[in-house]
Design brief:
The chain is mainly beta. It has one helix at residues 160-167, and strands at 5-16, 20-23, 38-44, 52-63, 76-83, 92-99, 102-109, 117-119, 125-130, 138-140, 146-153, 189-198, 207-208, 214-215, 217-225. The strands form three sheets. A seven-stranded antiparallel beta sheet has the order 8-1-15-5-6-7-9, with no helix packed on it. The model is unreliable at 1-12 and 15-23 (pLDDT under 50). InterPro entries: DUF4331.
């Protein structure tokens, strides 16, 4: 795989810390509905006191099961950005990019550039996994990193129609009560990328969250080939 210059797409979702979930569906107009559209980002310990961290990125949040389970765009690079000195600038990245039915992972390593442009870190391969269909396929590398890429049920209950009505001022009474709300994404899949990685490969945490727990600052971006 040759090095490819990529520019930042119109989709970015950030979290700070561990055991935090950020969600965002179909509101980046330039990429809404494709695999550059970030829906959710999870970063958490798989179990209390674990020496590993799990990162999960959900893309393209409206993939219906009867639509061939969606696809990953080969011109889209998904990048998990990690800040290790608490200046909110990425010091290392984990990248994922699909090719011919596989998802290839690179890093964690210093990015070729911070901010809006970058290249695929082909000199820092992490591993690869076959992109799953209806059955989940996972791969564990010699370094103990577990990888997954493929469709998964959208985890959120989200009354998207009412949400849009509220934010555009068309619903003066606000959000629906639980019994009246409708899950717009019920039955829909997202295209998910999951990585469980030993903390020893990420280095020491330098930030502290609101609960006083040491954490990594992390956020996710999608970059589109230009």
């Amino acid at each position: 795989m040759k090095k490819t210059k990529l520019l930042l797409g119109l989709s970015l979702l950030a979290v700070v810390g561990i055991i935090i979930v950020a969600a965002d569906h179909i509101d980046a107009p330039g990429v809404a509905g494709d695999s550059a559209d970030i829906a959710d980002f999870y970063a958490f310990e798989p179990s209390e006191g674990s020496d590993n961290t799990v990162f999960i990125v959900d893309l393209q949040s409206n993939v219906m099961p009867d639509l061939a389970y969606g696809t990953f765009d080969e011109d889209v690079l998904t990048e998990i950005n990690i800040d290790t000195n608490d200046d909110l600038v990425e010091d290392m990245v984990i990248q994922a990019i699909p090719r011919d039915g596989k998802m290839y992972f690179f890093g964690p390593a210093a990015p070729s550039a911070t901010g809006l442009t970058g290249t695929v870190l082909v000199d820092s391969p992490l591993g690869s996994v076959d992109i799953s269909g209806s059955a989940a396929i996972t791969e564990t590398t010699d370094d103990g990193v577990q990888l997954f890429a493929g469709p998964r049920q959208d985890a959120f209950f989200f009354d998207f129609v009412q949400f849009n009505a509220v934010v555009t001022g068309m619903a003066p009474l606000g959000f629906n009560a639980e019994a009246e709300a409708t899950d717009t994404f019920d039955g829909a899949n997202t295209m998910s990328i999951a990585i469980e990685i030993p903390n020893s490969m990420l280095g020491e945490t330098t930030a502290v969250n609101a609960l006083g727990i040491p954490v990594y600052n992390a956020w996710v971006t999608t970059n589109i080939k230009q």
